[in-house]
Amino acid sequence: MEERVPGYCALCISHCGCTSIVEDGRLTAVEPDPAHPTGSAICIKAMAAPDLVYSSERLTSPLRRTTPKGDDNPNWEAISWDEALTEISSRVNAQAAADGPESVAFSVTTPSGTAIADSFPWVNRLAHAFGSPNTVFATENCNWHKDFMPQHTFGTPLGMPDYELSGCILLWGFNPSTSWLAQARAIKTARKNGTKLIVVDPRSAGFGKGADQWLRVRPGSDGILAMALASMLIENGWFDREFIRDWSNGPFLIRDDNDRFLTEADLIAGGSAESYVAWNSTLDRPVLYDTESATYRDPEGRIGLSGNHTIATIHGELHCRTAFQRYSETCREYSGPEIETVTGVSPTQLYETAKLIHQYGPLSYYTWTGTAQNTQATQTGRAMALLYALTGALDAAGGNTQFERPQLNNVFGHELLSETQRGKTLGLDERPLGPGTMGWISSRDLYSAISDGSPYPVKALISFGANPLLTKPAPHAADAALRKLDFHVHCDLFMNPSAANADIVLPVCSAWEREGLNAGFQISQQAEAYIQLRPAVVEPRGDSRSDEWIVFELAKHLGLGEQFFNGDHEAALRHQLEPSGVTLEALREAPRGIPLPLRTHYRKYRHQGFNTPSRRIELYSQVFLDSGYPPLPEFIVEPAKNSYYPLLLTSAKTVQYCHSQQRNLPLLRKSMPRPLIDIHPNTANVFGIAEHDEVVVTTDEGVMNAEARFNSSLAPDVLCSQYGWWQACNQLGIKGYAIEGRENGNYNNLISDKRIDPISSSNTLRHSYCKIKRRAEATTPQ
């Protein structure tokens, strides 16, 4: 008997609406559901769902190591769930009693590229309820720069492009064709309706091939390019001057002597240090801005946006410039004739791109990991945000906006973690504006705490789906740290290299074997107004359980059941749904989801200002200055070439795989059987490399093996590869790859964990210098 079960694919952030075909209780196929707001198409990963669910390699029972860590054969023994949960709770509670709950770290994989999104908030809640401020999450390489750092500029996350009304779309370091199919479909529709498109990417991939402007940026120079584009807009007057004057802190005066805002406290004794000063051009005198009301105290006359002024203060005369003047001057520093050498983009193309932005507004834009994985990632994000602010399209129809979405109760549990424990977050002292503010730590900080006890020892780890040996830089450091842990628990669908030294491994069921709640499908107001409870399609394999079930049961064993509704998942769902006005019964009766009557309210700042210290867009960030960072984006211009490593290495995702997953699935592995290194044909000729040759790529960190693939869209000195290769595909007889050593295919061996962004701790996954040889000519790595 055939059953057609509506739902959505949970394998990545796209959450494409789909229908699962079940025959006699077995999943046989997954099809798109055109009636769903994200269901016009599905990718090959969703099509491979039956391979995933019924893989013979699935973990189906809790396992316990019976040999010492480091042994080639862990000699796993199957144990019951009660045995596993009892041992885990006993060990980690004892560890917390001995060295504090901060000595137990948690790890969770990305909800953007795995099915952990169903349980992600609950994993974070477990860490907070336990008292640990240390959760490893891929945020520094993934969503931090689009979801959190923009709050220092706009007071909100980046928001979603309003594609249906956009006049021009800017995709920067983001290829939705491989990583967000629902966005790709929305962009394709907009293009058919005449919307212009600008793509910034080192490769002509996805939409870059048919864009009105494709900017072949040199990896790592995106921030400089953003400043150069901003300078072009300002120089030609192609920006929304009224918006910047009325809704940014651009008019506020900044003291040249200490780079801080001039305030009322500088003008009169007892004045407010939070009342900023601007220049009234009509009255030719300073005027005070009141932060609380977000208005000028003397509204008469015109406020000056640019200019230099000498102001009489209680400290004597001070020379000041407006924040916009300072921003304009800083942008100009990155706009000289050498810009093409630095960024790979000519002044002529910069001019044409700036003109396109000006002529075909409103502009919407999106960026993701392509600009987030380098040592200047945070200031790059700032530079792009400020460039976008110049257009005046923020929260406007056709710009980037926060669509109205169903409201859920927040269950992350930040309130469960005391301020004392929050202050112990690894890396927070070093990076006070980084992910540590959310209780998320970097892998680098975790490795230091485990291996060196710095700044205090971490001795136990509970991991949900993470695989740092294949997804983070310096796998040797990860391996050494994981081996040194006193106790390590790993939860997953498959055994992976990072779990090889775990003490207990717990089997997780796939997204097709469990329910999942999603409120808001992001890509449009119609999609964002959608709320859906995805039903389980088939029974879980063996004794596998959902991540959420594991969290709830572990919480009960740890004595934290009260914070997890005493293990009652139905009560937890009802609590989450309460603000939405939608009942659990209604969702179960409507498995295709329920559209709510929500409407987008544009330009919300006109009524409430921005959620920033000045209640305006922060062109100039005194928060950054107070934390020891440049208040305006500043960049180190790196040399174009390195004599020993003459090529620039970057990476990109492929549609077949999410991170280090799924290479054991036959449908996907047939499509892409081995790691590739894209190289310009002319460069390949210089190095004596033919297409499909086996090659060795080397950096100052290590080596990687791959197959050469010609790509003439790359700059001649740029190479592009992928990370995540390790699995064999036994059904096709395709071998796996070693993690390290001569036979490895692990891109992360090439990447340093020492060169990081000083604010977010992002690393150089997209920007490292390298050399390449045919494998037959390469010497054995030392």
UniProtKB/TrEMBL annotation:
<dbReference type="GO" id="GO:0043546">
    <property type="term" value="F:molybdopterin cofactor binding"/>
</dbReference>
<protein>
    <recommendedName>
        <fullName>4Fe-4S Mo/W bis-MGD-type domain-containing protein</fullName>
    </recommendedName>
</protein>
<dbReference type="Pfam" id="PF00384">
    <property type="entry name" value="Molybdopterin"/>
</dbReference>
<dbReference type="InterPro" id="IPR006657">
    <property type="entry name" value="MoPterin_dinucl-bd_dom"/>
</dbReference>
<comment type="similarity">
    <text>Belongs to the prokaryotic molybdopterin-containing oxidoreductase family.</text>
</comment>
<dbReference type="InterPro" id="IPR009010">
    <property type="entry name" value="Asp_de-COase-like_dom_sf"/>
</dbReference>
<dbReference type="GO" id="GO:0016491">
    <property type="term" value="F:oxidoreductase activity"/>
</dbReference>
<keyword id="KW-0479">Metal-binding</keyword>
<dbReference type="GO" id="GO:0046872">
    <property type="term" value="F:metal ion binding"/>
</dbReference>
<dbReference type="InterPro" id="IPR006656">
    <property type="entry name" value="Mopterin_OxRdtase"/>
</dbReference>
<keyword id="KW-0411">Iron-sulfur</keyword>
<dbReference type="InterPro" id="IPR050612">
    <property type="entry name" value="Prok_Mopterin_Oxidored"/>
</dbReference>
<dbReference type="InterPro" id="IPR037949">
    <property type="entry name" value="MopB_CT_Acetylene-hydratase"/>
</dbReference>
<keyword id="KW-0408">Iron</keyword>
<dbReference type="Pfam" id="PF04879">
    <property type="entry name" value="Molybdop_Fe4S4"/>
</dbReference>
<dbReference type="Pfam" id="PF01568">
    <property type="entry name" value="Molydop_binding"/>
</dbReference>
<dbReference type="InterPro" id="IPR006963">
    <property type="entry name" value="Mopterin_OxRdtase_4Fe-4S_dom"/>
</dbReference>
<dbReference type="GO" id="GO:0051536">
    <property type="term" value="F:iron-sulfur cluster binding"/>
</dbReference>
<feature type="domain" description="4Fe-4S Mo/W bis-MGD-type">
    <location>
        <begin position="2"/>
        <end position="57"/>
    </location>
</feature>
<dbReference type="GO" id="GO:0018818">
    <property type="term" value="F:acetylene hydratase activity"/>
</dbReference>
